[in-house]
UniProtKB/TrEMBL annotation:
InterPro entries: MetI-like, MetI-like_sf. It comes from Paenibacillus forsythiae. SUPFAM superfamilies: MetI-like. PROSITE patterns: ABC_TM1. It is a multi-pass membrane protein. Keywords: Cell membrane, Membrane, Transmembrane, Transmembrane helix, Transport. This is NitT/TauT family transport system permease protein.
Length: 284
């Protein structure tokens, strides 16, 4: 009888766990759908107003064509292959600048965040550089590098390096000193201290810097390509604006906006996967 009772209890326990897991999954799906509806409602409202206002004559259709016309122009640009050419050029410039910013900012920011004396000495210079308008320096970059690719990559790099650098410094500085002291008391090596204690604690701040830099890279890309370029998304928008091809211009703007949103959500997803330990720590 006891074996039968144990088997019954085991099946009941497993069933309750499966039921609880299904309930949590269902709750998560409902929460996701609710959030998606709430987030999309405002976008549907804005797109509907954009479509309706020009068609009703409340806004000059030449200055603001209906949303469907802008999307149609964007699709035609893709069909002709022109959009792909501009995307490839823009991704090459922004990707190279963003990669250079990451490779420079994370090691330097880690060193400065760990060495408080160096950070105090260099911080005034960092703040001055960070608060200098990137676009105001564009003529300086043109003087040094000309109108070629180097100046465009340099201006994007200048705009994207600061969020990663400053967030890396902040993340390393804010590492819990008690955990660092405890790890040192256990005889951990310096490399192990960085990899197992400091780096995981600084990672959320670093990923936030990456998100900010990715958004900045898109903004700087458009500005950099509006002068002295013959291809790229920024060049395309400026080119069609000069020729009063307004639907094509808005099509390019819509694509850049969607691209920025996708990159942001991608980095948010990456941050969630790389910092799951935070959720486990909070639950524990």
């Amino acid at each position: 009888m006891s074996e039968i009772d144990d088997g019954t209890r085991l099946r009941s326990y497993r069933g309750s766990r499966i039921h609880a897991g299904s309930a949590r999954a269902g709750t998560a799906v409902l929460a996701f759908l609710k959030g998606a509806v709430e987030k999309s409602a405002i976008m549907v409202l804005i797109i509907s107003a954009w479509e309706a206002l020009p068609r009703l004559g409340l806004v000059d259709p030449f200055l603001l064509p209906p949303f469907s016309e802008a999307i149609g122009s964007l699709l035609r640009l893709f069909q002709s292959g022109e959009m792909v050419r501009h995307i490839a050029a823009s991704f090459g410039r922004s990707g190279l600048a963003f990669l250079a910013a990451v490779l420079f900012s994370i090691p330097v920011g880690t060193f400065m965040g760990w060495n408080e004396r160096i950070e105090r000495i260099i911080d005034p210079l960092l703040q001055a550089c960070r608060n200098t308008s990137t676009l105001a320096l564009y003529p300086v970059f043109i003087l040094f590098f000309g109108l070629g690719e180097t100046s465009k990559v340099a201006i994007i790099l200048w705009g994207t390096v600061w969020p990663i650098l400053l967030n890396t410094i902040s993340g390393v500085k804010e590492a819990d000193p008690l955990l660092i002291k405890s790890a040192r008391s256990m005889g951990i090596s310096k490399a192990g201290l960085f990899l197992r204690v400091v780096w995981p604690m600084a990672l959320p701040s670093i990923l936030t810097g990456l998100r900010l830099s990715a958004a900045t890279a898109i903004l700087m890309l458009v500005a950099a390509e509006m002068l002295g370029a013959d291809r790229g998304l920024g060049f395309m928008i400026f080119y069609y604006q000069e020729r009063y091809a307004i639907p094509e211009m808005f099509g390019g703007i819509i694509f850049i906006s969607v691209l920025g949103v996708l990159i942001n959500y991608g980095l948010v997803h990456l941050e969630g996967r790389m910092t799951r330990w935070k959720e486990r720590t909070v639950k524990g």
